[in-house]
Input
Amino acid sequence: MEYQSVERAPEDFQQPVSPNLIEAMCRRAFGDDVTVLSAVELGGGMYNTTYRVDLEQHGPFILRIAPEQARQYRSERGLMRNEHASVPYLAPIAALMPRTVAADFTHDLVDRDYLFQTELPGLPAPEGLAGYPRPRWRSFFAQLGTIARAIHSVRGPRFGPVAGPGFGSWSEAVLAGFEEAAADLGDAGLDAKDVLEVAALADRDRAVFDEIAEPRLLHGDLWTINLMVSPDAPEPTITGVFDGDRTSFGDPEADWVIFMATRRPGTERDSFWETWGPLGDSAQARRRRLFYQARHTAAIRLEAHRLNQPDDAATTYEDMRRLLAELGAQGLEP
Output
């Protein structure tokens, strides 16, 4: 078997697995007579360890291996299981998604969850988009708006991660998210005082969140890094959506894709709103979005720490100070 892995330090978050273990995973999933021709680690992701595995009898598959449980933050526990539970809810975009052909959460072979998925066609969107002049990117973001709207149209049974825990109100889910973020940052040795300040304001403003009475499906990580595009279409054309491990039920305006689409206004990203629709314009909606921005900022801080990017982590403190100032200036009557 040809085996290629990304060179990593022992302390790095993502860790490879041995060729023998990959062969054992393949035998469990596809039978003892399977022949593994190659396993090549893909370096684009930042959480799971991912290989392209080519099998003589079955062709190529994507093998995704979750981190060991001890390496997972509170806010990230069981993400692969959460993605597996979300598949039926992502039915509106099923044609764009990989198919899971085998999953193993038993930890018999390795103390990590893993699954095999079909390989999506096309190029990773960051690579594919680079081949088009920026004005043509508008059609890409319009397609992304359509995909996001299809996801957000799905109603859920309760608030919170698809696989649980569930919450009876949106305010409970939001507050739990801030509490987990602060605890994760504290465990990482980072200052989380500003996150706790935002959480205290959110607790005071529970009624603002509870205007959201109907849980809707959120992808949680929908953006260019988790999309595939056609390699030869005249306009950037989305051919695949993957990494749905952060799916949850909540307010669509809290989704990561909304946070990203609102950044850099006046650019090609503006075409997203032509298909997704306008954001809420009430005082309550604008205030909720500030809280959502704060939650995403806390997540960016944690990710920057994991990736050893101290400058990016430092920027989040500046961003959070601005958001706290805006929340104070925009305060609603208790």
Notes: The mean pLDDT is 95.
